[in-house]
Amino acid sequence: MNEFTINSFEEYLRIVSDDIGVTDQKGQRKRRYFRGQTKRAFEGYDLKPSIGRYAHLNSLPPAERDRLENEVLETFSNHLLTYVNHLPRNDWEALAIAQHHGLPTRFMDWTTNPLVALYFACRDSKKDKAGNPHDSAVYVLISEPPRFSELRRQQKNGAASAEEPESAAPVSGDDDGYDDFGLDESGEPLVLADDELETATATRPRTQPEPTKEGELSPFDISGNVIYDPPHVSPRIRAQDGVLLACHQPMQPLEEKDVLELVISQAAHDDIRRRLDQYGVFDKQLFPDLDGIAKWLKYRVFKINGMT
């Protein structure tokens, strides 16, 4: 795994802007995804989805694990619409909501915003058993997996025009990673308004999302990792520029060739936290609720004594 060591906020900005190819030679923005971790992967916090952290699942055959995931999702979905105002339309949206609320899934949280990833890497400095502080890390996904919206569009085009089989091949694209975040192919928001929700629920039971239709791409049947732009079921997803990586081998960590590691020196954590606060990348912005405000006040008043 290639890596850089970051010793300052300015150095981080320079590296993500210049050294990792966020823009191409013509100055056009390339899509990059970032993930911040308070512990580095080699320290035992592998780059794998939350369901992959349950070692006993490794003893199950893949088909049995898939069956278990589907059963858990079905149970979750049976309770879902009692608590949320968003009507999931398929397993992708249902899994995204489950991930957001802490259920172990085959999705991994990433962001298109490198400062958000830096926040998660430095928010809480960790120490080892001897009390020595840990370096943290931001990981950059450099393998450019296809996006669900692209695959779905290609699938529809392929069904409409059998004479163009090449349209079914994954295309990574090079447009801005923000351009269709939270949008379907028509450009309409995925989150339903209250009146739309009432109309939708009047025509079908309020139990669970429609299963993925036969022939449609399922998160349980993908043959490679896929980027999924989740609907804005929570203000946190929008605030954090969140995306999800659907992992086709959820029990296995990402391959080293797929990521770049930016090691954030623990000695720089305090200054980076202050700089992020100055840039508006902190608790009350990324967690736009009472929890975020409380965390922000705790940090500003009690941890740094009002200093920024």
UniProtKB/TrEMBL annotation:
<dbReference type="Pfam" id="PF08867">
    <property type="entry name" value="FRG"/>
</dbReference>
<feature type="compositionally biased region" description="Low complexity">
    <location>
        <begin position="159"/>
        <end position="170"/>
    </location>
</feature>
<protein>
    <submittedName>
        <fullName>FRG domain-containing protein</fullName>
    </submittedName>
</protein>
<feature type="domain" description="FRG">
    <location>
        <begin position="28"/>
        <end position="139"/>
    </location>
</feature>
<feature type="region of interest" description="Disordered">
    <location>
        <begin position="152"/>
        <end position="185"/>
    </location>
</feature>
<feature type="compositionally biased region" description="Polar residues">
    <location>
        <begin position="200"/>
        <end position="210"/>
    </location>
</feature>
<dbReference type="InterPro" id="IPR014966">
    <property type="entry name" value="FRG-dom"/>
</dbReference>
<feature type="compositionally biased region" description="Acidic residues">
    <location>
        <begin position="173"/>
        <end position="185"/>
    </location>
</feature>
<feature type="region of interest" description="Disordered">
    <location>
        <begin position="199"/>
        <end position="221"/>
    </location>
</feature>
